[in-house]
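Before surveying the methods themselves, let us examine one representative protein, written as a sequence plus integers encoding its fold.
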Amino acid sequence: MGLTAGPVPARVDGEVKAGLLDLVDHAVTQGWSAKRACSVLEVEPARVSRWQARRAARVSLEDAPGGPGEALHAILPGERQAIIALYEQWGDIDRGTRKLAHRGSRLDWVHASESTVLRVLRAEGLVLAPPRPREPVGPKQPWPDWVEYRPCQVWAHDFTAFPRARRDALAVLDLVSRKWLATLLVAHQRGESEHIAAIYTHALEREGLLAEAERRQIAPNDSEALPILLAVSDGGPQMVSGTTREWMALHSLALHIGRPGTPTDQAHIESLFGHIKTEWPELDAITDPDELETSLEAVRHDYNTVRLHAGLGYVTPDDEHQGRGDQVRKHRREGLEQARRARITYRRNQTDQQT
């Protein structure tokens, strides 16, 4: 009857209850107290007392079947119909149970929680339509054939806001090595083309490419020379403006514009400031622009030379930019194999010594 499987569960069959009562009665006839018998059987005396009262009244010991039963605060039939009416009239517009719940209050049709609206729709088999897919923007345009997958061949830029310092930060990133090349703070003026020219000039100078760009500016008719590098953008107005295009062309930089509304075309630069603000959250708390500029430069140094980049196989962007990435990754693989062989040798020697 399941009477020896530990404490009696919260709900048991009538047959088990009857068996427990018989055991208690037998123990009492042998001189035990009912409380002692309940302790040995691991059942609460109050439960046994209730079962004895039901048995004496010739009432079934089986528990009454559970019923749906409505809570006192359950919604009314009229409210249920109002939720269904909300679905029929506003489902294609709001497309979510949270919005439908608030829509019902806004229209004064029904005041119900979001979870209640969800339960009613599920019970009625009503499903809200998923969001409409965006219209395709065409296939992704590949990089030009002359681009080699190596550092200083493909750069990209992006903005982010630091509201407390009342500044926007513009960064240039090497998309191959992931090296954060330069930063420029501007006063919430993302549409200025001169900012793009200034930061690319700074980045070119740091990477030793500015002299070559200026030399080509003097000799613009050298049709055989390939562009110095490819500048990738998300198509912001400052990047596609005529002033920016002219400056890029004069400095022998080719432009590559990503598809509208498709940030994955330049995913690395789009996620740069997301990683930075997550790992250095104190930057968002800075209110002084000069302090923010100093802090960003310190973070840029750590990002390039200290922080291990998962997308590069856990080497730093500076390692990859300077050509040390393959060597560091090879050292890691060789070290793992050497350590594995050393562990095997050690344990084999331990086994030989024990035998």
Notes: The two ends are 54 Å apart (CA to CA).
